[in-house]
Write a structure and sequence with these properties.
There is one protein chain. With 363 residues, the chain is an alpha/beta fold. The chain contains 12 helices and 12 strands. 42% of the residues lie in helices and 15% in strands. The protein has a 5-stranded parallel β-sheet with strand order 4-3-5-6-7, sandwiched between helices. It has a 5-stranded parallel β-sheet with strand order 9-8-10-11-12, with helices on both faces. A two-stranded antiparallel sheet has the order 1-2. The longest helix has 22 residues. The chain is globular and about 55 Å long. The two termini are 28 Å apart. The model has no long low-confidence stretch (mean pLDDT 95). The structure holds 6-O-phosphono-alpha-D-glucopyranose.
């Protein structure tokens, strides 16, 4: 394993840095700009023709990608929900033979997710595995498979697989909407034109110096809160998960609008609030961040240069201008880098955090 890190101290940093390549692999050959259509090597369009709702089941980082995918599916005009795979058995929405259940799992071996997949099959649903591992249990057991093609991920904290999952789910949303309703309300041509730009846009973020200085500046604070709205919400959850996994510091993600309904009680000058602006109702998210700033919290704005949020920000993690359906992925890269540098400053075991496993094969 040691040799596989190449010039990097940790697999996590190597894998964050690989995203220009992994994203390019994920999209390759799957969108035809001439015809304006998405196609997958597997998954014929008729697979989705009779589907009237989609349930995505996943855990951890994959669950955040599933939440992202569910939002995109709904924007494409498809009835969709994401559910934690470990809650599936007790609180899944109604499932029948017109339901597509999508197991989103990097490893394809997570017991909770396999449990959801099996329960979905028993209930008569069509099942689809969105996974990184060919030949994994999820890939073998599901009716259909879509591979995210991110390449091997060794670091316990998932990084590059999140962006690849979100992209596959975005393409899938257009495919399902088109197959099941005849039209998709997603501007897939614009989105895919920007997916093609993502590798070079991610490259711009990789020097990581802004992320490192944010990590340094707020080292030792009491807790870290992440807020976002729309597609920024799963990004906030993922930012907080990454942070707690590898720094062992207290971090939580909230829907920006929900901050005032409870979490605001936790906000003090010792709790930096990382506010993620993905181009959807940003003015409301700015108001929410202002409420935290009024309580003295330092605000770290994750937004494009020149954004209104900078008027209240103490620190800035810049994201390039891109289609709003994708800016959350660029924000995630910045947040991965912040977590990495914060953990590195604390001398944590970044690739193998305490108590965690890359793939959890018990329920
Ligand atoms: C474990 C890992 C997480 C991962 C989750 C789901 O808890 O520590 O990083 O997101 O499993 O894994 P999967 O392979 O199903 O995506």
């Amino acid at each position: 394993e040691e040799t596989g890190k190449g010039e990097f101290d940790h697999y996590m940093l190597k894998e964050i840095t690989e995203q220009p390549t992994s994203i390019a692999q994920t999209i390759e050959g799957r969108y035809d700009p001439r015809r304006g259509s998405v196609s997958f090597d597997a998954c014929e369009p008729e697979t989705f023709a009779d589907i009237d709702r989609v349930v995505l089941a996943a855990c951890g980082t994959s669950y955040h990608a599933a939440l992202y995918g569910a939002i995109v599916l709904r924007r494409a005009g498809v009835d969709a929900d994401a559910i934690l795979a470990n809650e599936f058995g007790v609180s899944a929405p109604p499932i029948d033979d017109r339901t597509l259940v999508v197991a989103v799992t990097q490893s394809g071996e997570t017991a909770d997710t396999l449990g959801a997949l099996r329960a979905a099959s028993r209930a008569g649903a069509t099942t689809l595995a969105v996974t990184n591992v060919i030949g994994s249990s999820a890939a073998r057991e599901a009716d259909e498979q879509l591979f995210i093609r991110a390449g091997p991920e060794i670091g316990v904290a998932a990084t590059k697989t999140f962006s690849s999952q979100a992209i596959v789910l975005t393409l899938l949303a257009d495919r399902i909407a088109t197959a099941s309703t005849g039209t998709s309300t997603l501007p897939i041509g614009d989105i895919c034109a920007d997916v093609d730009r993502l590798p070079s846009l991610v490259e711009e973020l990789l020097d990581g110096s802004a992320a490192e200085s944010v990590a340094r500046r707020y080292r030792g604070e009491r807790a870290f809160f992440f807020i976002g709205r729309g597609l920024g919400y799963p990004v906030a959850l993922e930012g907080a998960l990454k942070f707690k996994e590898i720094t062992y510091e207290h971090a939580e993600g909230f829907a920006a609008g929900e901050l005032k309904h409870g979490p605001l009680a936790l906000v003090t000058p010792e709790t930096p609030v990382v506010a993620i602006f993905t181009g959807t109702e940003d003015e409301k998210t700015l108001k929410n961040a202002e409420e935290a700033a009024t309580r003295g919290a330092p605000i770290v704005a994750v937004c494009p240069d020149g954004h209104d949020a900078l008027s209240i920000a103490d620190a800035h993690l810049s994201i390039p201008d891109v289609h709003p359906m994708l800016s959350g992925l660029l924000a995630t890269v910045q947040l991965q880098l912040v977590s990495y540098h914060a953990a590195n400053l604390l001398d944590r075991e970044i690739d193998k955090p305490r108590n965690l496993a890359k793939s959890v094969t018990v329920e």
